[in-house]
Amino acid sequence: MARVFMKGTEAVAEAAVRAGCRFFAGYPITPQNEVPEYFSRRLPEVNGVFVQGESEVASINMVYGAASMGVRSMTSSSSPGISLKSEGISYCAAARVPMVYANFARGGPGVGSIQPAQQDYLQATKASGNGGFQMMVFAPSTVQEAVDMTYQAFDYADRDRNPVLILADGVIATMMEPVVLPEMKSDAEIAAIKEGKKSWACVGHPLDYAHRAWIQPGQWSTARMQEENEAAEALYRSWEKDARAEEYLVEDAELVLTAYGISARIAKSAVNLLRQQGIKAGLIRPITVHPFPYAAYDHIDYKKVKAVLDVEMSIPAQFVNDVLVGVKDRCRVEKCLCSGGNIMSREAILAAAKTIMEG
């Protein structure tokens, strides 16, 4: 298919439309404003519905309602806006309602800055809302990956009847790159997807206990709630097979950089420069940050490697906690960090890497 030049936010929105998303509710926040703006123009063209809610809280609950009807639905926001949506996301998880959302992260905590950051990692992977629910979380490093992951996310959400998160950042949001867009799902395909949800969706079932529970999971008995939690735990364990990582020049590496998202893209270019300078560097890039690809770190030759260098746009470091679990004390783990809207520089990575190798 032909390549088109698109901004990250708009490319994600178009990928969602092509995946069959027919409802979007959201609220403006930098740096993801072009997502709702794009949906507001695009969804009416495909008989979809766009709503700008009066707040983030209203928007996520609209998505909850539309998704409960079996409609492929989406929302997006950035950092503090995602925090406001966390209760509604928790409700979707409790009710086993599939939906997709994107976080184009900015600096924090609090309102923070409007520039890119990776300070939402723990929120995304460990505590997206109350109750301990989990989600699949994808971390694109290019606009093309953001397109592909968004398109696939709706299938994962429907497969598991669970929310799925695209964890991006302000760089991915605002940069423009050539992308190949996926094929548009036909009206017949979209209708078949919705028809396949009739066994559980709120489409006119008698108001018995079971179907009220989809809308009001808080009305479950304690016994029923525990049963649902046990079923959810089994689902989360099944995701181990879905963990994905890119391993770049790891086989003979004496220094392994590890990063996700835009930091990994910058780190990969640093690996290439280090190789040119005679330093055998490699990169492990988690593509799914939940489930986390711990097994990728078993492929490091710990007899050769001097250290693993965690590269992330977060202070204090967050991604490093999963890296430490993967490394299992087999070598030391060092950090190269920035935060608050500062974008990771290749020069900082090169300096950190050389300090390790010279030390």
What would you note in describing this structure?
This protein is α/β, with parallel strands linked by helices and 359 residues long. It folds into two domains: 3-241, Rossmann fold (3-Layer(aba) Sandwich); 246-358, Rossmann fold. Helices cover 41% and strands 19% of the residues. The chain contains 13 helices and 14 strands. The strands form three sheets. The chain has a seven-stranded mixed β-sheet with strand order 3-2-4-5-7-6-12, sandwiched between helices. A five-stranded mixed β-sheet has the order 9-11-10-13-14, with helices on both faces. Helix 12 (320-327) links the parallel strand 13 and strand 14. Helix 1 (8-18) runs parallel beside helix 2 (34-42) and helix 11 crosses helix 13. The chain is globular. The termini are far apart.
Radius of gyration: 21 Å
- Following the backbone from N to C, one meets helices and strands in this order, namely EHEHEHEHEHEHEHEHHHEEHEEEHEH
Structural class: alpha/beta
The oligomerization state is single chain
Largest sheet: 7 strands, mixed
CATH fold-level label of the largest domain? Rossmann fold
Read across the widest sheet, the strand sequence of neighbours is 3-2-4-5-7-6-12
Q: Give the helix proportion (percent range).
A: 40-55%
According to CATH, the homologous superfamily of the largest domain is: Thiamin diphosphate (ThDP)-binding fold, Pyr/PP domains
Number of domains: 2
Count of separate DSSP helical elements: 13
Note the beta-strand portion.
15-25%
Provide mean pLDDT, rounded: 94
The backbone outline, from C-alpha atoms, is: globular
How far the N terminus sits from the C terminus, by CA atoms, comes to 49 Å
Strand segment count: 14
CATH C-level class of the largest domain is Alpha Beta
Under the CATH scheme, which architecture of the largest domain would be assigned? 3-Layer(aba) Sandwich
Segments where pLDDT lies below 50 for 5+ residues? none
